[in-house]
């Protein structure tokens, strides 16, 4: 009796479950990643119970790092001189009617640097000002 040998089955790799798992991981990472607009400079914001604004006006962000560096709308500025800071604020506010100045100062910044930013906003003719803060842990 002669038995015919069947050719061996070639292994088949099914990629569809693998792709499904990768898509689930990608969706998970995309939904759990937090995006921050304050990544240009390391700033540890103070905590406060804050409310979200319903209508966001045009904003000019003034960031002050712990070591005293200033950024106005992402551009480095010498903030120890309120006149130079006021010029940078006025330049950033051009074309923005009723711009809101958002002051994002590190929690350990000396009070004088915050006062320089407030004085510069006054000199630039920007009366609308708010402070950036983060919610306390556990809220």
Please render the helix and strand layout as text.
Layout: H1 16-32, E1 59-64, E2 70-72, E3 75-77, H2 82-93, E4 100-105, H3 111-123, E5 129-131
Parallel strand pairs: 1-4, 4-5
Antiparallel strand pairs: 1-2, 2-3
Helix pairs in contact: 2-3
Produce a short descriptive summary.
Helices cover 30% and strands 15% of the residues. It has 139 residues and is an alpha/beta fold.
Task: Characterise the protein shown here.
This protein has 139 residues and is of the alpha/beta class. The protein is built from 3 helices and 5 strands. The protein has a domain at 59-131: Nucleotidyltransferase, domain 5 (2-Layer Sandwich). Helices cover 30% and strands 15% of the residues. The chain has a 5-stranded mixed sheet, covered by helices on one side. Helix 3 (111-123) links the parallel strand 4 (100-105) and strand 5. The protein is rod-shaped and about 105 Å long.
